[in-house]
Amino acid sequence: LRERRLQTTEELKQSPAGLCPVLARTVPSGVAYHHAGLTVEERSIIEAAFRSGTLGCLCATSTLAAGVNLPCRRVIIRSLRVGSEGLDGTRFRQMAGRAGRAGYDDAGECIVMARPGREVAQARGLFHEELAPLRSALHGQRLSRLVLEVVSLGLVRTVGALEGEFRRSLLRYHEELDGAPDSGGGGADDTSGAVVGRSRLLADIRAAVAYLQEQHLLRVEEPSQ
User: pTM score > 0.70 for this model?
Assistant: First the structure.
């Protein structure tokens, strides 16, 4: 284990950003930090070392709660505030959900540190707080970015696939379908409500493709005759 930690220290030293003095002291003891200011190389090295067990503890900001597949056995939340804002139920579930991830572990723990009195009541409230309903945020530039990403990664190769299977995989597709008038909840392709519900997203996807073409970020080739 000591040799693996020294190897991680050396990898960080060889990274473009060099070895941070803090990490030089903590990594040999199995401790590191993780936040949005890390370079891609630093983040990759630290995450790989944690997954392998070389590092046993990560001191992280709330950014680690989402977007990184980094399960663990125990999460310790040392403050009920995130910056100037109070910790809400959604963010708490994201943080606590790192512990005991299904498929990686059979148990997990979340420890919340709170001052006696008001903070204790606030912490207990987080455990039972109802989460706000999920809503799609894929509109405007976010949708354009997603279209560019799935095309550049080779996940979608044709306009038909983009407007068909890809579109039907989005939460927004089902939101608009469920919220469309006269859909009857059946989701049949030939209902007027379903057509109305899906047409908004379809129009936005086509607008996103047109925008990316105008920016010379995407090229749609016409089928050969």
Answer: no
